[in-house]
Amino acid sequence: MPSTFVLGQTIKRIDGSKITADSLNAKIEYLMKAANVSGVAVAVFNNNQPVFSKTYGLANVQEHIPLEQSSVMYAASLAKMVFAYITMQLVQEKVIELDKPLVAYLSKPLPDYTINGWNRGYQDLKDDERYKKITARMCLTHTTGLPNWRWFEADKKLKFKFDPGTRYSYSGEGLYLLQFVIEQITGKDYETISQERVFKPLGMTNTSQVWQTQYDANICYGHNAQGEPYELMKWEEASAGGSMSTTLEDFTKFYSALMSRKGLSKKSFKAMTNLQVRIKSRRQFGPLAKVDSTDNDPIQLGYGLGVGTFNTPYGRAFFKEGHDDGWGHYSVCFPDKKIAIVIMTNNDNGESIFKEFLSYSIGDIFTPWRWENYIPYDQRN
Hints:
two-stranded antiparallel sheet, single chain, globular, alpha+beta
């Protein structure tokens, strides 16, 4: 798919106002220069279809290789949205239930499973039977009580931070647990499931949950704030929490399908993208994640199934971000308006442009950027 960018073309924003494609193009170039961002890939959607799709800057700063629509980028936690989409298909097919304890699908107690690679077993939970309460809904709403990743813990052990179902706290471990159970139910590994249900049907030929050698010719690197590349991790094991590599071209196909409810019933789409649990934490991560506040009460910040949610005068919105060293991504959709945006950046400075980018491109002044720990480039010390 070539860049979708026509001089003079108009782009509709959520408040009904319009901008031209060339003015957005100029804005992106200005923001990249002002914040020193290596590369940006963006798709703007009107009527659930991309009306502006373009890449900017470099995929490899040191070798001055341009970022293209076909450049393979690490998707980070945007991958979780694909997993939620797959899970909701399985729910509507009655393969799995949202509120049935996951242990009911297993042939032996969860702590008895030893998983090769990544120290992924569940032996750490053998003396804490709270694991028996965890459901698919808890995993998708980040309310399992499990940490984000066990290796972030001081002792590298898997443990409950709070009782399942009582509080939102972002957890890749929760998503991976649900992935593991789905693999047991279906008898298929997650890469195979992803290819069969999403990547092949949607023509996402350069997307995978594990690194493919064909990507070596189109690598996009993540960079630090000085434009120096991080070492690229080529995932050998599929993780619903964030092993996926993709391109702007491919991810645009997925996002269009999601917005248009392709493969999902109206009921499934509504459940996935509507509020399931309210979020009261002051920040999503860090010490303030444990501090409750009313900061986001005006937008009723919450979580659906695999995506965040908030309300605006222009209808509800659902969002998903992705972050890792060298990568900063954000997607937000206003389904009532059929307007959305996907932003992918390959630089530690990338997230600093999101506030201004969202406001100018689609009129989104509601995304909770403070909760996201995004510090705008013009507010940094």
